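Standup notes, structure subgroup. Blocker cleared on the 1-O-alpha-D-glucopyranosyl-D-fructose input:
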Amino acid sequence: MASARPWWKDAVVYQIYPASFKDSNGDGLGDIPGVLSKMDYLKGLGIDIIWISPMFESPQVDMGYDISNYEEVHAPYGTVKDMEDLIAACHSRGMRLILDLVINHTSDQHAWFQESKSSRDNPKRDWYIWKPPRYAEDGARLPPTNWRSYFSGGTWEYDEHTQEYYLHLFAKEQPDLNWENEETRKAIYDSAMRFWLDKGVDGFRVDCVNMYSKVVDFQDAPVVDKTFYEQPASEFYANGPRMHEFLREMNEQVLSRYDAVTVGELPHTPDPRKVLQYVGLGDRQLSMVFQFDIVAIGQNVAQKYNFEPWTLPVLKEIVAKWQQFIEGTDGWTTAFCENHDQGRSVSRYASDAPEHRVASAKMLAMMMCALTGTLFVFQGQEIGMINLPKSWPIDELKDIEALGYYKSMAAATNNDKETMATVMRNLQILGRDNARLPMQWDSTAHAGFTDSKDGPWMRVHDLYPDINVTKQLQDPGSTYSFWKAMIQLRKEHKDMLVFGAFEIFEPDGEKTFVFAKTHRNNKAVVALNFTSDDQRVTLPPFDGLALRVGTYPDAADVEKAAAPGNMRTLRPWEGRLYMA
Ligand code: TEU
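Run returned:
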């Protein structure tokens, strides 16, 4: 039911990770003026909306997802004035800007938390989640529950001064706000949302959007991982009892008054019916969400970084499921496979071997640009950036989650050599650092990301002389040029490619992925080879299918030479798009 088509549905969104995008002042860290200097580059790629990851004032324990003041900019990134300039720079180019809305928690340095922890009877005590200790039979002090935090260890931190624990689903420096308190919610709406909406931002990517409502009787989670005391506990804090009520309130009181778009981050929600509750247009909660199945591929349920090999039918089923779940409803979906929390898609879903990585990047670009939903591209994806080199040691990693996992595994196994080698391999595939390497702009020192004498805040990928923007801008056969052409094609054929009905063929095939997108009598067929060998595929028997785009430069000639009929041979990691 493609009835309503608000402005954000056919938009292409580009995510900027400010620390790693472009340094303008030589301090080794990206910044807002750096973003401003690349606006024409983004416009040239065909981007409609920029989503910038947190650029707010923050002690940076979790790269800005720990905010100490929603109404200030992290000084090394720039000023509120720079943000106003960025809003204007987007709008003057017909583009929009969305910010990251991190309101499940604040930094422990936020003034609200400083007050809250100052005494048990402080008026803001109840703005965070405080609980008394439990005591074991031997008198040992225990946290209120055994819940595991995302960054290893428990979710409760003891405060000596007031002798209670506070809840933190992430780092102990990221205390969870108490959404049960109406005054807190109002303060969040004012400070984190209205402040920026009044300056003209066009919406938000909403961090941890389903975690605000906890099951408030705070019970222990069942033991599923005997290695640790702390246990996965998402059933007690994800999609909690008041979640939809809170989002409706937020929409009614804030978002709807500005025509703001929202894309919520929705982990722990595999059931399409539950996802639809968030994204139905009529219910006015969120515009769309990032459902997590695609990025959870290869992750273990109990210990996310324990990498598990997977097969192509798994990926195909996930893509099909989240393409089709909105059919016949008023919901909307997203197409994405990268962000700042994930390994690079070429390395995870295809091949980053030197001889295959360009083909792989183009093949994935073709897939993404043909999917229904709002399309999200993460910085560097458009040039086919890949995971960090396998040879890098743990000292090169910066992410609090990666380091937490590394330390907890070392402690649990007494630094067992074999285990720790596996841990490093897991992080090289799945670690968040993979996405956070500086953007590769050119082949000069530090990939043109910074001219700091001391180099960038995080090491630049060894392969930047090969994989960089400047080189690709000049090359019509590059990954960048392919993305640009595919984005244009997506816009020209939006009825099929952005809004069309999705159909999958041979879902069990382990080597190739063939799907169709249909709008009325028009069809697009995408055939993708997910292996490093030639593969035979059967195109669906639609009349008049003709090749429209191929990821290999000679695709048109090869197509002409193909034997009559529906069989085709795809070369390693090749993709072809046909239309009828
Ligand atoms: O992530 C929240 C989240 O649910 C996770 O999937 C996250 O990727 C983490 O790695 C869990 O294992 C958001 C942000 O995207 C992330 O960068 C932040 O660290 C987190 O919230 C806390 O704000």
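Discussed briefly. The chain has three domains: 2-106+182-479, 111-167, 501-579.
Next: hand off to the docking folks.
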